[in-house]
Design brief:
Two copies of one chain form a homodimer. By secondary structure, chain A is an alpha+beta fold. Chain A is built from nine helices and ten strands. The first copy, chain A, starts with 11 loop residues before the first helix and ends with a helix. The first copy, chain A, binds a DNA duplex through helix 7.
Chain lengths: 235, 235
DNA sequence: GCAGTTACGTACACTACCGTACAGACAGCC
DNA sequence: GGCTGTCTGTACGGTAGTGTACGTAACTGC
């Protein structure tokens, strides 16, 4: 999310710590490979491990009713999965789906809670991150309510590009439809439109961002709002 | 939210504390009258006071873009306003609008933070409440995305009835339209439909719940989901 | 008692999205 | 080459919602 150049393979929350705390913490982390489309947790599950993505991306998806799911957040190198633990609740509030394969730093719950008590800076950092996530969920809520599919798709692509740290990544229309809570056909139309405007190109799930600035124009203002909030609170 | 009878004029979060903590805290609270339609805070404002409603109701409304606002949460005697402070962030994430006039216990931020440090039970209670609110926001997000206006209206009326602790309260179609993020006319149609089914009656803003069970059937399952979560975490 | 304001009802053309169905295009595999 | 599964494009009727406009009823105040 930062505009500063990012070293691939680091997690911002961990990197922002004082070097003492950071070294101690990293020593206890296990670098883990997250596999595309894996479901790490389902809403209601007890949380046994937390994840700090470095090159991977995790989607937070909330089940609404028997027919519907909706993505409410995206976690990449700028964030973490396992926030309920900060609130002393050991229950996942959302489904956690691996949306982009890659690496993540992994800690067991007990070790994580231990480290949390040891480092005030760490705790502070994560509390602020939780605040940002709360705001983002609400923003996403409204975005899903008011904005058209094409704008939401553009926003999603931008957010994913930020976290993928690459201008191309793999994601099919079916997957996007699931995330945005629309029909696959709705994505096909919107994606086609973005492609006709030469903002993106795609072929069998391989999406490439061609014109980032244009995509920002095509997206709703939610993208900028979210980014600004992150900078304000954690920048 | 509890099914047990509720003494009007108490706040659940405060009442749930050990009697020592509770007495200490109540001694520092100032009972305040909240006026209908007052905006206590706007998103981004620094938080100078926190509120624990007893007979009042506060709506959390998130501004989405220049044309749209959306209610993401409802705070009555079961909750509080001022949660960001628990995360050490002194910035309101949402607009706080008085949706039901009445009393609330009020604390200045400094006193609140002080009390928070003094009582582990208080802190624990509020962290759990924050967890519930986070989940509810996501649920509301999806509800707004997938469910029809009539079902959402029914849910809103039920939630408000719980918090108003009365089967009648005052709210106009315009106000409801603002909260649910739809046209006023959309509310008129939905409300009319509920009235024709003899579930509610209304006249110039005075709404009366006639058939609670029927209203629960007419509402989406989100109402039950939310209630169940609250019981599970804070019951 | 009239005027102004507030609350609710109805009507109309329009749009985004839905559910479903079907067909073409491409990739991997035997 | 042909088969199979995956991914994308197109098509069609249906619906819940939009923006706008206008009308009516009820309460409020001078």
């Amino acid at each position: 999310m930062s505009l500063a150049p990012v070293v691939t393979g680091t997690n911002h929350l961990l990197a922002a710590l004082p070097s003492d705390d950071s070294e101690q913490l990293l020593a206890r982390c296990v670098e883990t490979e997250l596999v595309f489309a894996d479901i790490l947790y389902r809403s209601g599950d007890p949380i046994s491990h937390v994840y700090f993505p470095t090159t991977s991306i995790i989607s937070l998806v909330t089940p609404i009713d028997s027919n519907h799911n909706l993505e409410v957040g995206l976690v990449g190198y700028e964030g973490m999965f396992g926030l309920p633990l900060i609130l002393s609740v050991n229950v996942a509030s959302y489904n956690a789906v691996v949306q982009g394969a890659g690496q993540a730093m992994c800690l067991s719950t007990s070790v994580f809670l231990n480290e949390l008590e040891k480092s005030a800076a760490f705790k502070q950092e994560l509390k602020r991150y939780l605040y940002v996530v709360m705001s983002q969920i609400a923003q996403t809520a409204g975005c899903n309510r008011f904005h058209v599919v094409e704008a939401r798709l553009a926003r999603w692509l931008l957010m994913t590009q930020d976290r993928a740290q690459s201008d191309q990544f793999h994601v099919t229309h079916v997957f996007l439809a699931y995330m945005l809570g629309v029909r696959r056909v709705g994505i096909t139309k919107a994606a086609n439109s973005l492609q006709n405007k030469a903002l993106i190109s795609y072929k069998r799930g391989d999406i490439k961002i061609l014109d980032r600035a244009g995509l920002e124009t095509a997206s709703c203002e939610c993208y900028r709002t979210e980014k600004a909030l992150y900078e304000q609170i954690l920048g």
